Amino acid sequence: MARYFFHLRTGRTFSRDDEGVEISDPDHVAAHAARLARRLIAETDLPGIWAGTWARSAFAVMDGEQRLILHLPFATVLGPRPLLH
After folding, report:
1. Which end of the chain is more exposed for a tag (fewer CB within 10 A), N or C?
2. In this predicted structure, what is the pLDDT of residue 50?
3. What's the Cα-to-Cα distance from 39 to each of 20, 53, 65, 68, 73, rounded to whole Å?
4. How many other C-beta atoms lie within 10 A of the C-beta of residue 4?
5. Is the CB of residue 11 less than 8 Å from the CB of residue 22?
């Protein structure tokens, strides 16, 4: 089983994932990243945040050798949302 690290970039802030997650099938890494992004957005989304913070957020997923294997912008997970007026 391989360990993958889901580092989070939000705007200019970079948060390292120092623990990582063990995933047995490399084909499941993208699905795991998408679930994490959706959960993070659902737990913290407030009106107006999507247009600002989440639109500039992404996971940089690294393998155990610290090689970038996936860059997942949050905008690709949920697609565009209407702006609240």
Report:
1. C
2. 55
3. 17, 15, 27, 22, 14
4. 20
5. no
